[in-house]
Write a structure and sequence with these properties.
There is one protein chain. With about 70 residues, this protein is α+β, with helices and mostly antiparallel strands. The chain has one domain. It is about 15% helix and about 30% strand. Strands 1-2-3 form a 3-stranded antiparallel beta sheet, with no helix packed on it. Strand 2 and strand 3 form a beta hairpin.
């Protein structure tokens, strides 16, 4: 609601026991993606939709970059 996204997300089954909910048409180009992992417990999943979880997260943030990229120093 804070990003004024559509009320109902699109729903995509990405793997066995994994569903991706995507909220589109958000204000100022914002995006919201939520993965539901059935039976996942409280552990970090190795993969999401057949891809390394780290790569999925990185790809998401790189597709929503605004302004210049911060560099460590």
């Amino acid at each position: 609601r804070l990003d004024h996204c559509q009320l109902r997300p699109s729903e995509t089954k990405v793997a066995a026991h994994q569903t991706l909910f995507t909220y589109r048409r958000c204000a100022r180009g914002a995006g919201v993606e939520l993965y539901r992992l059935q039976g996942g417990g409280h552990s970090y999943p190795a993969t999401l939709g057949g891809h390394a979880t780290d790569a999925v997260i990185y790809r998401y943030f790189m597709s929503h970059v605004r302004g210049r990229v911060a560099r460590g120093g």
